[in-house]
Amino acid sequence: MLRRHIRNYDYTLLFLTLALVGFGLLMIHSSAPPDPRNDFFGQQLMWALLGIVMMMLFTVTDYRFLGAWARPLYIGIVVVLGMVFLLGETVFGAQRWFQILDRQIQPSEFAKVLVIISLAKFLSDHEGEKGAILLSGLMAAVPMGLILLQPNLSTTIVLGTIWLVIAIMGGMPLRWLMMLALLLAIAVPLAWPHVPEYQKDRVLIFMDPTQDPSGQGYNLIQSRIAIGGGGLIGQGYGKGTQNQLGYLRVRHTDFIFSVIAEELGFVGSLLLFTLLIAMIFRLIYDIGVAQDAFGRLLIAGVAGWVFFQSFVNIGVNLGLVPPTGVPLPFISYGGSNLINLLLAIGLVQSVVIRQKKLDFD
Fold this sequence. Notes:
The chain has about 350 residues and is mostly helical.
């Protein structure tokens, strides 16, 4: 059994995961060098090692065992998200974190993995039932609503995307998808007057950052300067002017792609694109490997998560998407996000190594 699992392990996915984590560590070291107050690189390295251990633990754990606990896991994360409003720390006007010892834990990141497990299990247990698609939407809406109230719009949208991908894979009819798109097209302009002013400002400034060049438009302008200044091969690792001189804010989190483009240029950006695209295609390949609906839906949820966050983060850096605060998978600084992504990869490996029909290259 052990030898079969070792033989069936997706080493390509493992390589891509470790390559992205290593890439992220290098860029965090450049964008946020250690100082007496904060050692972002050291903290990210610690989280990466912990995440890799957790990835291995999830790999050896039978994903079907986790499926059997899907309902308690779902209830648990809903309760924890509710407790954030009672016990959570408020930072920059948002109540999203628990302070445990000297670390901040963001439950909404754990919600991504647990919602994937819960939705995948529910839809696999009701395969072919159209009503289950609607019920799964209600299941996703509960944690999404709690996260939106924190407020955390970006994670709410990520969870919504994860549900949509799993629902489509679970058999959502095309006409339902078209109706949903129509409803969203109608709802957005109706909801616009009720959107908080700071979120309206993000959209308006995105359209023209020069309206507030020293305020909300500042980082968008600096990001474009950084990306444009990178050229073909970049200004050199640790030598980017916008990065090293501190013109680009939150450069180790939301705008780390701009650091990559500035210091490593088009070549470095292309390398990052290649790793991310290769991972997404490998996850899609693994969907075909899975022999049961639960496994397929699990992997689909993870693939949708990685793709959407990658698209949005890079889109923000390029000025194609309004600023959202979505981290770049495996690259941006942040323990909760990194650990949960690695847990998700462990889940995928758990599905893959337990299949009978495998033909990996």
